[in-house]
Every structure is written in C-alpha cells, then in structure tokens.
Amino acid sequence: MPRPLAIVTGASSGIGYELAKLAAQDGYDLVVAADRPELGQAAQDFRALGAEVEAVQVDLSTTEGVDRLCDALRGRPVEVLCANAGHGLGHGFLDQDFAEARHVVDTNIVGTIYLIQKVGRDMRARNAGKILVTGSIAGFMPGSFQAVYNGTKAFINSFAFALRNELKDTEVTITDLMPGATETEFFERADLMDTKVGQAKKDDPAMVAEVGWKAMKNGEGDVVAGWKNKLQSAIANVTPAGMLAEQHRKQAEPGSGKA
C-alpha cells in the first residue's frame, strides 16, 4: 500500500520543519515547500526518516507559487495539509516598507487560504482529510509594532473556525494551532531582535509541532501550545483592546530589549 501524502509549508525550519518530521515518522510521504534554500537539507532529513519527499522552493505569497506547489502533487490525494508558512515584520507600520508589509499579508493570508481552498476542495470531494493551520495567540491582541502580523493571525484564527463549521457535516477536519513566541527564525527575519519579545525565552518548536500534530490527528478544532500561552490567551479574551495594545508595545517596541 502506498503511504499517505502530507503537504507541509514553511518546512525549512521551525514549526514547519518539526511538523514535517512528525509526518515522516508517522508514515506519510511529503511534499514540502518554503521560500528558503535550507529546504533542500530539510528534505534530506525527512528522507532519512523513511519518507519519499518532494521539495518545492517557492514563494507562497503568490497564487503562482501555490499553483507550482499543487502541480508537484501530480494528482495524488492529500491526506494531511499543514498550512504553516508565514512570517512577521517588526517596527511601526508607518515606518515599514509597504512591499514588505504586503508580503506578510500575501503569505500569511492570501497564499494560505488559496492553498487551503485548492486542497480542501479535493478533500471534500473524497470526504476525507485533515488540515492544520498555524494561527497564533497573537491573533487575540492588537500587535503594536507588529500590527500587520497580528492582524493576519486574527484573520487566520477566525477563518479556521469558520471553515471548520462549514465542513462540520463532512469527514474533513480543520485544526487551528495557536502557538506563542517560539524559538525559530521568525524574530530575526522580522527584525525583532532588539525587542523584549525577541530576547525572551521562547517555546521549543518541536513541542509546539507535537501539540498541533496530536490535536489535528484527533480532529480537534483548536489548540494553544504551552500553559503560559493558554493563560495569556484566556486573559486576552477579557482584557480591553487598548490595554492589550499597550502591553504588546512594551514587548515589541524597537529598543525595548535593551538593558
């Protein structure tokens, strides 16, 4: 019997890399995608775990990039989609290069929902499949000095719950993984290393991926990784938005990490 197929985006490092490892260990073959050259080495690591792996280095902020990823499926049914690709951008919104801000929106939202629609339609037609979306507890709070990123994650969290409800009468499940700050390349890439959140201790991406993978396999609707993040998300739900924005400012404002 052929092994089932999983797609993992953002698989070159961090949470996506760990999700792809879990998929390979769980008996899945892989189509992995990222916009980073490190994807090639990551794919070798996944092959060493027994998976057949096709690696597609592509910009998932574009519909053309998503189409290239889907072409790599060659018509094979997808049992699991881990829509994990995403990145952030620090500093005040009015100081950001708009092309960079738009790339965050196009990667985190446009490319993500386009991929989910393309793969999800086939899953619905087969009445089988699991989708894990990487949202964030950042989606619960206005992200001063990360305004665009937090806004995209608010969208993704909301979108995942809505799509799950639309599919409630099918065997296709949607799970929203909501991590907090995780030890990945995210903070360096987003130019947040001089902030409190950039310098603070963060969660292990392997732990976050395992929490998400288990929740997805169990068909759960959402999961927050880590007890501190569970507490933070619960508090955010009852805290005024203005207060949350000020709290976020203290963590993400440029220079806040200086002694």
Topology:
Layout: E1 5-9, H1 14-25, E2 29-34, H2 39-47, E3 53-57, H3 63-71, E4 80-83, H4 98-126, E5 129-134, H5 147-166, E6 172-178, H6 186-189, H7 196-199, H8 205-217, E7 222-224, H9 227-236, H10 241-252
Parallel strand pairs: 1-2, 1-4, 2-3, 4-5, 5-6, 6-7
Helix pairs in contact: 1-2, 1-8, 3-4, 4-5
Structure description:
Belongs to the short-chain dehydrogenases/reductases (SDR) family. The radius of gyration is 18 Å and the shape is globular. It has a 7-stranded parallel beta sheet with strand order 3-2-1-4-5-6-7, sandwiched between helices. The mean pLDDT is 90. The chain has a single domain (5-252), classed as Rossmann fold (3-Layer(aba) Sandwich). The chain has 10 helices and 7 strands. It has 259 residues and is of the alpha/beta class. Strand 1, helix 1 and strand 2 form a beta-alpha-beta unit.
Distance between the termini: 58 Å
Helix content: 40-55%
Order of helices and strands: EHEHEHEHEHEHHHEHH
Name of the CATH homologous superfamily: NAD(P)-binding Rossmann-like Domain
Give Rg in angstroms.
18 Å
The percent range for strand residues is 5-15%
In short:
This protein has ten helices and seven strands. The chain is 47% helix and 14% strand. The chain has 259 residues and is an alpha/beta fold.
